[in-house]
């Protein structure tokens, strides 16, 4: 049972299904504005049962349409068969499972289908994505980085401690002048990079396993950060009173002006207009693009894959393993530093326990996204998927009021199942 | 200008406990193929690694064009125009072929890789070398032969003046070897010097201009290849006359069938199909064929390592179905794998552990091992097989290839298996040790055991087998009895379907 379909026909499938979804979205949206569909009671209100579903349908429709239009029309035929279908299921198992989960959540609680919710999820995912992109470099060389979370805490504490308002009572540095906002940020990220260099040095110079090297650094960083945090007059008090210009780096929203809200009043089901895009989302997107470029278009990126894929071959090809490993850990720690600064800005404060355990979440997201712990395999696209999957699941489960304990269980199961399925792709014989 | 392009003088290198190189010299002229020969452990690879900057020699000097140079890393070596095709070097599997070729010197500007240029250069290089390989294909999906040709292309692309080839033909079929020789001849005409390491006498005599021989870390001498004979080379390599390459075979296999395989098909469509044969008690059945004939895949399936779709295996009159090597072992089968380092030895464990690992169960009561018994057994079988090592506690990785192989055979003798499957039993083993392995094989069949031997070396296949089964592209294409053995006939059977397939090179 198999059927051959040419590329152009295959692309047409995308175009057609995209068009259908787009039209369905428009029709549903139109229907929802008709008075006759707005029943007298709440249970009859069409908006209360589909919320922003039309918008999502239209967006997915446009995406599929573009995919159909942009794809190359030449190339080998696509074969539809039981075997290929099985392969498709294995390759996209996580995506499909997530889709099913989202559908279930939407049925149980239609409020989930809101643009506001989607933007919230993206906002929450952004700092985690930055972390994951950093840690993926260390995973690509078959290493790991246990110090990532503590670096977040370090960057958060350093940046917040120097960016408090002049009038705040419990200032970390009571006599510190109001410096330019970028200066403490650079200092915070720089401190992280220093520890990143220590990681890299231990791994590259002494051939230490990254697990051990970064474990040592993790403990050192936490100790250092706590000593700093415990200095007089702060004495381990949570840092607050953060300057508004610093807060803006984590909390600012684009397209959230009153005029836009008024203009888009009726576009969304909740009738409150466009909720605005958090600044964290574009920051994460820019970093994604940069990291994608580094991994795929630069010599450094290729060397990372080479060292991870076969270190010995890289050495005899004349690649300096020392320089590249240093580069990997320093670049990774720079990203953790950025995540830490954003975390401090977003929460308008910091303490020494910030970021604790973040590295494990980031590693989990990477492996679910197809990064191999054996090194040499992993793509930015997969990492984005991995981070989004965790963000959606976490948000969704909270939405359904599932207890945090169960959330942990489910998260763990997802990691195990996702990686098990992923590994079947590489298994031979 | 010096007479020689490369001069290595009085190179000395000591590893903990071993003097690997002792005042070794090597002089290579431009535009020649210089064969470097010696038994395994003679120091050829070590000498080449010194030249390529992977090892730092303790003493001696290296001169290029008469000028002394200091080579501290692989990068340095390449900058000096030296390229190396490594033995047993695996590619970066999940990256493309072209990335593997240009690794370490990607074309581009300011650290940004120019993919188009890289593709074009690879394409031009492959076209030039008449290699039909897609530069974008994943390296891990290529056959061993293609990967070896890829390594060769890589060395050519460096525009090296000196190319070191360490066993470049180990996974090439005869046709691909011919192709490689064409490339070598062209490079020679361009004035490139090539240092060619191989154990295959025929190749050496065919391709090289000069032959240097090493023995036990010392330099023996250099001779022009013209007029040199296999016997002479072997004599210089082992330091003694080798009148016979194979020990005499006494006795004949009995008519009793111990293993009967009928219509065996692999679960993998591209692997072996419809394999049937009988193995007699006290027989050595050789399996001949080219790379890709699925011989290894077949014996691995017999041993429970790969799936069997259909067909039956009959052992001593009983149907036997191996689902795992455990099953196979309990039925008296033993497999000596092709890749000794990857799937044979436990490098960091001592000889003792390596010898008894397949038989632990018999040394344990309630899960507690009887050390005295283990040592006694290991010692006696190692002695029987003449394993040369200071003690049973010596790490197996410190032994020569031949002695490692003997320990592995000892491992299977301890399990009392009566069918030994040997996959390339003498690959990468020096001449002297080969002879010992052959003796061990004959000793085993004299004890009424049976042997299935895969070998890619024609003389070995014909010299040791009682019968040869030839495979081509997964099918059995014929059986030859001892009186029918001839190189031409084996080749004819081994290439029966080759016309249908596009060759790798």
Could you characterize the architecture of this molecule?
The complex is a heterodimer of chains A (429) and B (505). Chain A contains 18 helices and four strands. Chain A is mainly α. In chain A, the strands form two sheets. In chain A, strands 1-2 form a two-stranded antiparallel ribbon. A two-stranded antiparallel sheet of chain A has the order 3-4. In chain A, helix 6 runs parallel beside helix 12. Chain B has 17 helices and 24 strands. Chain B has a six-stranded mixed beta sheet, with helices on both faces. In chain B, helix 13 (371-384) packs across helix 14. Chain B is globular and about 70 Å long. Chain B starts with 5 loop residues before the first strand and ends in an 11-residue tail after the last helix. The relative contact order of chain B is 0.11. The A-B interface holds A 297-303, 305-306, 309-310, 312-320, 376-377, 429 and B 52, 54, 73-75, 78, 84, 86, 89-95, 99-100, 103-106, 108, 111-113, 115, 268, 305-307.
Draw up the topology in text.
The complex is a heterodimer of chains A (429) and B (505).
Chain A: E1 2-5, H1 7-33, H2 46-50, H3 53-70, E2 78-81, H4 82-91, H5 93-108, H6 115-140, H7 148-162, H8 182-206, H9 210-229, H10 244-251, E3 253-254, H11 258-263, E4 277-278, H12 280-297, H13 299-309, H14 311-316, H15 321-347, H16 358-368, H17 380-399, H18 404-424
Antiparallel strand pairs in A: 1-2, 3-4
Chain B: E1 6-15, E2 18-28, E3 33-37, H1 44-51, E4 59-64, E5 67-69, H2 74-79, E6 82-85, H3 97-102, E7 108-109, E8 112-113, H4 115-128, H5 144-157, E9 162-166, H6 174-189, E10 193-197, H7 201-207, E11 210-215, E12 218-224, H8 230-238, E13 257-266, E14 275-280, E15 284-288, H9 295-302, E16 308-315, E17 318-319, H10 325-330, E18 333-336, H11 340-343, H12 351-356, E19 364-365, E20 368-369, H13 371-384, H14 401-414, E21 419-423, H15 431-446, E22 450-454, H16 458-464, E23 467-472, E24 475-481, H17 487-494
Parallel strand pairs in B: 3-10, 3-11, 6-9, 9-10, 15-22, 15-23, 18-21, 21-22
Antiparallel strand pairs in B: 1-2, 1-4, 4-5, 7-8, 11-12, 13-14, 13-16, 16-17, 19-20, 23-24
Helix pairs in contact in B: 13-14
């Amino acid at each position: 049972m198999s059927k051959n379909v040419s590329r152009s026909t295959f692309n047409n499938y995308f175009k057609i299904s995209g068009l259908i979804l787009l039209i369905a979205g428009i029709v549903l949206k139109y229907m929802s504005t008709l008075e006759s569909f707005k029943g007298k009671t709440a249970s009859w209100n069409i908006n209360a049962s589909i919320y922003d579903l039309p918008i999502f349908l239209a967006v997915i429709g446009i995406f599929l349409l573009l995919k159909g239009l942009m794809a190359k029309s030449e190339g080998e035929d696509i074969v539809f068969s039981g075997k290929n279908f099985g392969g498709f299921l294995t390759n996209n198992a996580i995506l499909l499972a997530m889709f099913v989960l989202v559908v279930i959540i939407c049925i149980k609680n239609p409020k989930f289908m809101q643009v506001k919710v989607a933007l919230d999820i993206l906002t929450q995912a952004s700092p985690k994505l930055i972390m994951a992109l950093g840690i993926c470099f260390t995973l690509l060389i078959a290493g790991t980085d246990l110090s990532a979370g503590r670096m977040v805490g370090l960057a958060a504490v350093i940046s917040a401690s120097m960016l408090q308002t002049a009038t705040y009572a419990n200032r970390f540095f009571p006599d510190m002048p109001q410096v330019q906002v970028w200066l403490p940020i650079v200092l915070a990220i720089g401190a992280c990079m220093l520890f990143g260099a220590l990681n890299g040095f231990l791994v590259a110079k002494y051939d230490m396993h990254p697990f051990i090297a970064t474990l040592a650094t993790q403990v050192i960083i936490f100790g250092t950060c706590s000593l700093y945090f415990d200095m007089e007059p702060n004495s381990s008090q949570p840092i607050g009173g953060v300057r508004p210009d610093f807060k803006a780096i984590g909390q600012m929203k684009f397209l959230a002006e009153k005029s836009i809200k008024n203009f888009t009043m009726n576009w969304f089901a909740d009738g409150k207009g466009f909720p605005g895009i958090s600044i964290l989302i574009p920051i994460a997107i820019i970093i994604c693009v940069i990291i994608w470029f580094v991994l795929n278009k630069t010599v450094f990126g290729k060397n990372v894959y080479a060292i991870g894929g076969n270190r010995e071959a890289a050495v005899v090809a004349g690649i300096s393993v020392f320089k590249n490993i240093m580069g990997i850990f320093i670049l990774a720690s720079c990203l953790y530093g950025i995540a830490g600064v954003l975390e401090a800005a977003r929460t308008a404060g910091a303490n020494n326990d910030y970021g604790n355990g973040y590295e494990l979440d980031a590693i989990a997201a990477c492996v679910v996204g197809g990064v191999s712990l054996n090194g040499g395999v992993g793509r930015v696209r997969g990492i984005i998927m991995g981070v989004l999957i965790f963000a959606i699941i976490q948000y969704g489960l909270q939405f359904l009021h599932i207890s945090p304990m169960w959330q942990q269980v489910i998260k763990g199961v997802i990691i195990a199942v996702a990686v098990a399925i992923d590994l079947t792709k590489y298994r031979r014989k | 200008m010096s007479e020689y392009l490369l001069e290595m003088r009085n190179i000395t290198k000591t590893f903990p406990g071993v003097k690997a190189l002792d005042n070794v010299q090597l002089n290579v002229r431009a535009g020649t193929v210089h064969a470097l020969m010696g038994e395994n452990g003679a120091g050829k690879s070590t000498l080449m690694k010194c030249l390529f900057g992977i090892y730092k020699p303790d003493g001696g000097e290296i001169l290029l064009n008469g000028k002394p140079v200091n080579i501290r890393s692989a990068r340095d070596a390449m900058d000096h125009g030296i390229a190396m095709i490594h033995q047993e070097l695996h590619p970066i599997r999940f990256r493309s072929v072209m990335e593997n070729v240009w690794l370490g010197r990607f074309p581009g500007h300011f650290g940004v890789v120019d993919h188009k240029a890289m593709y074009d250069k690879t394409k031009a290089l492959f076209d030039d070398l008449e290699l039909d390989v897609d530069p974008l294909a994943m390296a891990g999906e290529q056959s061993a032969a293609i990967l070896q040709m890829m390594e060769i292309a890589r060395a050519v692309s460096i525009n090296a003046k000196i190319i070191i080839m360490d066993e470049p033909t180990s996974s090439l079929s005869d046709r691909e070897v011919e192709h490689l020789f064409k490339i070598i001849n062209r490079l020679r005409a361009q004035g490139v010097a090539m240092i060619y390491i191989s154990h295959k006498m025929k190749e050496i005599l065919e391709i090289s201009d000069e032959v240097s021989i090493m023995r036990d870390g010392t330099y023996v001498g250099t001779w022009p290849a013209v007029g040199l004979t296999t016997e002479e080379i072997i004599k210089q390599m082992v330091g003694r006359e080798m009148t016979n390459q194979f020990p005499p075979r006494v006795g004949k296999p009995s008519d009793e069938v111990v293993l009967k395989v009928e219509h065996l098909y692999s679960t993998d469509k591209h692997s072996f199909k419809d394999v049937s044969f009988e193995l007699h008690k006290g027989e050595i059945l050789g399996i001949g064929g080219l790379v890709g004939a699925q011989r290894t895949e077949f014996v691995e399936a017999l041993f429970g390592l790969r799936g069997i779709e259909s067909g039956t295996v009959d052992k001593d009159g009983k149907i036997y179905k191996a689902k795992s090597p455990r099953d196979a072992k309990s039925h008296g089968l033993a497999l000596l794998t092709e890749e000794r380092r990857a799937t044979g030895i436990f490098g960091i464990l001592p000889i003792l552990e390596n010898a008894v690992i397949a038989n632990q169960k018999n040394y344990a009561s309630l899960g507690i091992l009887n050390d005295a018994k283990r040592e006694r057994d290991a010692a006696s079988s190692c002695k029987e097989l003449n394993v040369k090592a200071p003690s049973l506690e010596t790490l197996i990785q410190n032994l020569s290839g031949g002695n490692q192989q003997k320990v592995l055979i000892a491992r299977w003798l301890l399990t009392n298996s009566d069918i030994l499957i040997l996959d390339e039993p003498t690959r990468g083993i020096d001449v002297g040790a080969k002879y010992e392995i052959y003796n061990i094989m004959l000793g085993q069949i004299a004890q009424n055991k049976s042997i299935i031997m895969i070998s890619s070396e024609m003389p070995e296949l014909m010299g040791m087998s009682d019968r040869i089964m030839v495979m081509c592209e997964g099918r059995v294409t014929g059986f030859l009895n001892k009186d029918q053995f001839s190189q031409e006939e084996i080749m004819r059977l081994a290439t029966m379907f080759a016309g249908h397939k596009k060759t790798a090179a």
